[in-house]
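We give its fold:
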Amino acid sequence: MQTFIFMGLIIVIFYFFMIRPQQRKIKEHKKYVEDLKPNDRVVTTAGIHGRIVEIGDTTFLVDVGSGTKIRFDKTAISLEASKALNTAGNDAK
């Protein structure tokens, strides 16, 4: 009986320390991507910085400079460019 209680306790710990925070992070990222609008500066998961030009159903058209535009899947957007610059600045200190 103790073995089952111990296994149940381990499952509960995994849920609260690993699964639940990851689900919350996914939900926040999804909301962030849904709230993006044209002219927002973003960073993709590949590290490409750009400005959103057009928003489609499942894609963003991002201007990456010199008139070069690349179409990205919405899941490829990592974070807002200003947050990326703040993070990089904090790492350098």
